[in-house]
Amino acid sequence: MADKDKKVKKKKAPKEEAPAEEAPAPAAAAGDRQSSRGSRKAKRTGSNVFSMFSQKQVAEFKEAFQLMDHDKDGIIGKNDLRATFDSLGRLATEKELDDMVSEASGPINFTQLLTLFANRMSGGSDDDDVVINAFKTFDTEGKIDSERLRHALMTWGDKFSADEVDEAYDQMEIDDKGFIDTQKLITMLTASAEDEEGGEAA
């Protein structure tokens, strides 16, 4: 009889434990559901930005982000931008740095940086001021070092081949010391964009 009591107790004990084990499971599942909803929402929000770029572009932006994030904290701040400009040989003013940081709606992490790029690109071709500012980063006293620009064109972003750079340089005036007149280059590029837009409208 004692054996039957033990068996009954053993049988009852698992039954009693089973509901106790099941009770936390729905709570955990509900927690999973909430977090998966949050994950889906986060993925959905982020995927819109990521879907605007090819995997190659996202990888290149990630590489650029890592180069710009000098303190490696995952956020590009004013000091990171200053260090980036310094490494390019250009001193940026406090106002320029403040303006760049204030373009973002929050801290500039990688997703925020992609969002900034997406917003800029959604307008189609670059505005003239974007082209002007891009080339002015290479400008030193009205001239651009053609070898430094060649290196940048072949290293970052949509990388140019040596032949593509040579073809572009055939369209530019380069002096005997290897410098490009910044203003002439900007005029050529912005006039070409206006000509193209005028040609498409006609």
Structure report:
This protein has ten helices and three strands. The longest helix has 27 residues, at 24-50. It has a three-stranded antiparallel beta sheet with strand order 1-2-3. Among the domains are: 51-121; 128-189. A hairpin with a 2-residue loop joins β1 (139-140) and β2. The model is unreliable at 11-47 and 193-202 (pLDDT under 50). α7 packs antiparallel against α10 (182-201). Helices cover 70% and strands 4% of the residues. The protein has helices at residues 2-22, 24-50, 55-68, 78-87, 94-102, 110-121, 128-136, 146-155, 162-170, 182-201, and strands spanning 139-140, 143-145, 179-181. It is globular. It is mainly alpha-helical and 202 residues long.
How does the SSE layout of this entry go?
Layout: H1 2-22, H2 24-50, H3 55-68, H4 78-87, H5 94-102, H6 110-121, H7 128-136, E1 139-140, E2 143-145, H8 146-155, H9 162-170, E3 179-181, H10 182-201
Antiparallel strand pairs: 1-2, 2-3
Helix pairs in contact: 7-10
